[in-house]
């Protein structure tokens, strides 16, 4: 039974592949509904982080309430902006669950991409009404008719009256607003039943604490409501509720069907996890909303301050980032080569890069990061089970019965001319072919199962270069499988460097060992002695390179007593040295620890 | 004691590898020299110390008519207490020297000439953009000896693009046969912004590799030693009693005063320099105004860095006594770990009195200095 107030509410999100124009469309919608005054308008309004604007991606979910008039009635449109990357699939799924509908943006020249598909399937799984929109129709390469057909054939959606727009120029964007009102269902739900609100994101505010972004399914909440998070069991007193405009605007209460925020002096974002259900502590709902998952990191790496004295600064910075990002995990660890630092867990590679970049930019830290690793399951002879996310901690192989590694379901969308290249790459990466579908006459969707540790190595770079950028991919970790894994160690001048160890499949060890040794030879500067670089498995050397000794190194003459230049050179060298790590007797530049990951060729 | 450097920033044509301050047009010469005279007059009052070395560098100090140089020297003697046995050096380009000029220099008291040969192969000279030939050098050198110069330095550069070890050996033989009192042999450094740098960038020239550079350096050291030249500084060689007094002031971290555009000074731990802009320099000094473009009082840390960096260019290094008298600390107690490593890597030798670079320490001087000053 729909309540009267609900019939004029529409909750929706926009799904699109990177660069297909999601943020631009959002900007236009906000602008055309007059939500943000003209003078406050800047590009990618909802992408508040510099990093988001620069990279053209959305990292954090945002929401905005827009008022739109149609046929003499006012409608409240709540747009929930979702992250657009595979690393954040779970977050996307929770944002979708908070909506009744989705606007699917497809680029009129590019067509459907792997991620579009993944997100559309997610939306369908959440029973969302989908409005397809064909964007960038003003580009000369646009082929809207073909794309409309593709949407119908591949996704089974009716695209006959899909708005054909240019989000950039604003052309036909009004049709999108009209379609949202006309086609998307209003929320249902009963304001008189016990409170049930879905947390789709959170934000840490210095004064208000962790603020939960919620969609109310049933019930109501207002200042003073004692709320309980059903997964964590934590209870708080509501201090404020409100809507997004897009800044926080306090309101009297939120009712079933509303999208808004709840502030309750929550100290820790971990207490308001994405996907959790908020209920009324005095009159709790019988059961929580489905779909909550405690997110577990998929990718791990060591992060160390380049300057050992900055350890505390790094810890403080991680603490601050975690305030807004409960999916970031970190634990102190010590490396013989790198000193004191942290083992950090991330949702995926992009998440890792973002965190590293934010640490360096927003906190002005110089970092040394190690190559990423996945989490392995180790079954010991003793029957004990271990989870190993740092290769250094792998026990002696003779004590291990077997090991398991995470496997990902990978889908790659590619023009059919590159099918051979993509298949070759997937084979190289120990992939198992599952099946292949034709999306349209010249585009193919390939399904593979590939070990996650191969994906985090250089899969994406390789895929892009082998398909000239035409292929797109999506992946999801599906489980663990037994695997013949070994620890590959790197010795510099005969001494093992723990920070360079990796876990790798036995068949790949020789190749990886060789390429790491070659890479290190390039990045380690020549020093006063010859430096052998060796790759070894359990004491057996499988690859060797040598950095030749430096034999002549004299600064130029100082002419007419001008020694300032020479001094500057020395200072520069000293700066460079600060970025070096002493591994035994060898000085290793910080970037060496990551460079082992970079693509061959 | 004070050393005085005078910068003469004029050249017929700037060499392809040169990035010192110098211009090719001579119309400013007159104004420039009167500006330097003004600077001499202005600074003369400030320093009562005896001057025991004067060095005309450039640019090409031998380019302007001799009267300009002798005029400066005269002004210098009036304003400063230049000692009777002061070493007075003038840098000369072979194609600018003639009998009357050399005679005028002698008469004015210039007692040391530094002549740039650089290489003894005309094709290499052309590549470097030098304005003279090997033959032109021979002529100039002969004239200088005839004029009575008994203390001559010959400048050479090695590790040139396209220079073979044989070329270099030939240059060494040619120079040693002349028996100059002093020889400088520098490895070419290809400086950004020079024509040579561009040609290397464009792939037209190929810089010498490190092996060749080292082989040439060692060949020079051997040839010099055989002919009784002492390698008293990394790139400088002298017969008994002919080390360059002026340049030793830099390496010994003694005071020197620089006059003229772009000239640098170091007096009582103050470092300062004139503007590199010749016209600005003329403008300042035409009104007798001393205006230093850069000046800094060196904190102890930097003075230590400079001390180590400069002293270890010398064969004799430094004594712990000298270090302590400057910095009131014992070097050995201050840098025990750094010293241990420098010795371990065979870069220095030590005894109770002091520390000096080994031959390897000369080869790897930059490494030696960075190592010792790492934690400074």
UniProtKB/TrEMBL annotation, chain A:
One of its GO terms (molecular function) is translation elongation factor activity. Pfam families: EFG_C (PF00679), GTP_EFTU (PF00009), GTP_EFTU_D2 (PF03144), LepA_C (PF06421). Its EC number is 3.6.5.n1. It is found in: Cell membrane. Its main location: membrane. GO terms for biological process: positive regulation of translation. It is a peripheral membrane protein. GTP binds at residues 19-24, 135-138. It is an enzyme of class 3 (hydrolase). Keywords: Cell membrane, Elongation factor, GTP-binding, Hydrolase, Membrane, Nucleotide-binding, Protein biosynthesis. It comes from the Bacteria. Residues 7-188 form the Tr-type G domain. One of its GO terms (cellular component) is plasma membrane. It catalyses: GTP + H2O = GDP + phosphate + H(+). PANTHER family: TRANSLATION FACTOR GUF1 HOMOLOG, CHLOROPLASTIC (PTHR43512:SF4), TRANSLATION FACTOR GUF1-RELATED (PTHR43512). Belongs to the GTP-binding elongation factor family. LepA subfamily. Required for accurate and efficient protein synthesis under certain stress conditions. May act as a fidelity factor of the translation reaction, by catalyzing a one-codon backward translocation of tRNAs on improperly translocated ribosomes. Back-translocation proceeds from a post-translocation (POST) complex to a pre-translocation (PRE) complex, thus giving elongation factor G a second chance to translocate the tRNAs correctly. Binds to ribosomes in a GTP-dependent manner. HAMAP family: LepA. This is Elongation factor 4. The lineage of its organism: Bacteria, Bacillati, Bacillota, Clostridia, Christensenellales.
UniProtKB/TrEMBL annotation, chain B:
One of its GO terms (molecular function) is 4 iron, 4 sulfur cluster binding. Residues 1-233 form the Radical SAM core domain. Signal peptide: none annotated. Transmembrane segments: none annotated. It holds the Pfam family HemN_C. It is found in: Cytoplasm. One of its GO terms (cellular component) is cytoplasm. InterPro entries: Aldolase_TIM, Coproporphyrinogen-III_oxidase, Elp3/MiaA/NifB-like_rSAM, HemN_C, HemW-like, rSAM, rSAM_sf. It comes from the Bacteria. SMART domains: Elp3 (SM00729). Gene3D superfamilies: Aldolase class I. GO terms for biological process: porphyrin-containing compound biosynthetic process. Probably acts as a heme chaperone, transferring heme to an unknown acceptor. Binds one molecule of heme per monomer, possibly covalently. Binds 1 [4Fe-4S] cluster. The cluster is coordinated with 3 cysteines and an exchangeable S-adenosyl-L-methionine. PANTHER family: COPROPORPHYRINIGEN III OXIDASE, RADICAL S-ADENOSYL METHIONINE DOMAIN-CONTAINING PROTEIN 1, MITOCHONDRIAL. This is Heme chaperone HemW.
């Amino acid at each position: 039974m729909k309540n009267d107030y609900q019939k004029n509410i529409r909750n929706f999100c926009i799904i699109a592949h990177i660069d297909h124009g999601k943020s631009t469309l959002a900007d236009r919608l906000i602008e055309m509904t007059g939500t943000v005054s003209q003078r406050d308008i800047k590009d990618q309004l909802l992408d508040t982080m510099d990093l988001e604007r620069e990279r053209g991606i959305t990292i954090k979910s945002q929401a905005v309430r827009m008022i739109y008039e149609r046929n003499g009635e006012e409608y409240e449109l709540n747009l929930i902006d979702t992250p657009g990357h595979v690393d954040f699939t779970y977050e996307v799924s929770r944002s979708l669950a908070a909506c009744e509908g989705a606007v699917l943006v497809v680029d009129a020249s590019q067509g459907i991409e792997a991620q579009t598909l993944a997100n559309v399937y997610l939306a369908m799984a959440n029973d969302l009404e989908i409005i397809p929109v064909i964007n960038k129709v003003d580009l000369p390469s646009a082929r809207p008719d073909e794309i409309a057909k593709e949407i119908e054939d591949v996704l089974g959606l009716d695209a006959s009256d899909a708005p054909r727009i240019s989000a950039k120029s604003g052309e036909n964007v009004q049709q999108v607003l009209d379609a949202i009102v006309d086609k998307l269902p209003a929320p249902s739900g009963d304001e008189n039943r016990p409170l049930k609100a879905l947390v789709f994101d959170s934000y840490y505010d210095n004064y208000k604490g962790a603020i939960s972004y919620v969609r109310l399914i049933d019930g109501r909440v207002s200042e003073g409501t004692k709320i309980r998070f059903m997964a964590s069991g934590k209870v708080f007193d509501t201090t404020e509720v409100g809507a997004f405009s897009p800044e926080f605007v306090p309101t009297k209460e939120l009712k079933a069907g509303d999208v808004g925020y709840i502030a309750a002096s929550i100290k820790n974002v971990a207490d308001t996890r994405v996907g959790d259900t908020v209920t009324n502590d005095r009159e709790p709902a019988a059961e929580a909303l489905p779909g909550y998952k405690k997110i577990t990191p998929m990718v791990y790496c060591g992060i160390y301050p380049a300057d050992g004295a900055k350890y505390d600064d790094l810890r403080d910075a991680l603490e601050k980032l975690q305030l807004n990002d409960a999916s970031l995990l970190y634990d102190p660890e010590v490396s013989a080569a790198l000193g004191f630092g942290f083992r950090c867990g991330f949702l995926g590679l992009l998440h890792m890069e973002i965190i590293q970049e934010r640490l360096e930019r927003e906190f002005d830290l110089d970092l040394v990061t190690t190559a990423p690793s996945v989490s392995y399951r180790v079954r010991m002879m003793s029957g004990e089970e271990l989870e190993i996310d740092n290769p250094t901690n792998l026990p002696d192989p003779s004590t291990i019965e077997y090991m398991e590694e995470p496997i990902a379901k990978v889908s790659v969308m590619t023009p059919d001319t590159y099918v051979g290249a993509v298949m070759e790459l997937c084979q190289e990466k120990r992939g198992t072919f599952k099946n292949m579908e034709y999306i349209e006459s010249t585009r193919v969707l390939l399904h593979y199962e590939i070990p996650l540790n191969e994906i985090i190595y250089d899969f994406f770079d390789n895929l892009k270069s082998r398909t000239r950028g035409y292929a797109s991919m999506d992946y999801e970790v599906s489980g663990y499988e037994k695997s013949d894994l070994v620890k590959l160690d790197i010795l510099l001048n005969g001494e093992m460097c723990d920070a360079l160890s990796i876990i790798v499949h036995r068949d790949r060890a020789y190749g990886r060992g060789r390429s790491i040794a070659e890479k290190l030879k390039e990045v380690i500067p020549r020093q006063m002695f010859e430096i052998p670089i060796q790759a070894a498995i359990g004491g057996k050397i499988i690859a060797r390179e040598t950095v030749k000794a430096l034999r002549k190194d004299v600064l130029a003459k100082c002419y007419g007593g001008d020694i300032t230049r020479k001094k500057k050179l020395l200072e520069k060298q000293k700066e460079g040295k600060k970025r070096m790590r002493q591994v035994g007797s060898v000085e290793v530049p910080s970037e060496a620890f990551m460079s082992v990951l970079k693509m061959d060729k | 004691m004070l050393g005085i450097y005078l910068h003469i920033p004029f050249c017929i044509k700037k060499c392809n590898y040169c990035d010192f301050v110098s211009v090719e047009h001579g119309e400013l010469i007159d104004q420039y020299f009167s500006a330097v005279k003004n600077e001499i007059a202005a600074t003369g009052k400030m320093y009562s110390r005896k001057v025991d070395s004067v060095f005309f560098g450039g640019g090409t100090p031998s380019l302007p008519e001799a009267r300009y140089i002798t005029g400066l020297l005269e002004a210098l003697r009036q304003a400063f207490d230049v000692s009777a046995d002061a070493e007075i050096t003038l840098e000369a380009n072979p194609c600018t020297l003639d009998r009357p000029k050399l005679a005028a220099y002698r008469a004015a008291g210039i007692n040391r000439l530094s002549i740039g040969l650089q290489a003894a192969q005309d094709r290499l000279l052309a590549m470097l953009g030098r304005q003279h030939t090997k033959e032109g050098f021979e002529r100039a050198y002969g004239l200088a000896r005839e004029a009575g110069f008994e203390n001559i330095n010959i400048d050479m550069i090695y590790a040139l693009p396209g220079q073979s070890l044989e070329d270099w050996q030939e240059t060494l033989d040619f120079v040693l046969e002349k028996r100059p009192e002093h020889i400088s042999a520098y490895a070419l450094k290809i400086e950004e912004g020079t024509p040579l740098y561009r040609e290397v960038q464009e792939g037209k020239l190929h810089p010498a590799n490190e092996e060749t550079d080292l082989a040439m350096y060692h060949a020079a050291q051997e040839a010099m030693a055989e002919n009784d030249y002492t390698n008293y500084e990394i790139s400088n060689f002298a017969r008994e009693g002919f080390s360059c007094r002026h340049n030793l002031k830099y390496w010994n971290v003694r005071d020197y005063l620089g006059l003229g555009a772009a000239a640098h000074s170091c007096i009582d731990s103050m470092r300062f320099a004139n503007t590199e802009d010749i016209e600005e320099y003329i403008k300042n000094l035409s009104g007798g105004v001393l205006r230093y473009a850069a000046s800094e009082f060196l904190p102890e840390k930097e003075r230590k860095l400079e001390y180590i960096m400069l002293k270890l260019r010398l064969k004799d290094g430094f004594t712990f006594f000298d270090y302590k008298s400057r910095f009131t600390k014992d070097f050995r107690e201050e840098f025990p770990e750094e010293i241990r490593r420098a010795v371990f890597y065979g870069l220095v030798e030590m005894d109770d009195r002091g520390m000096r670079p080994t031959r390897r320490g000369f080869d790897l001087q930059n490494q030696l200095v960075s190592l010792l000053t790492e934690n400074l």
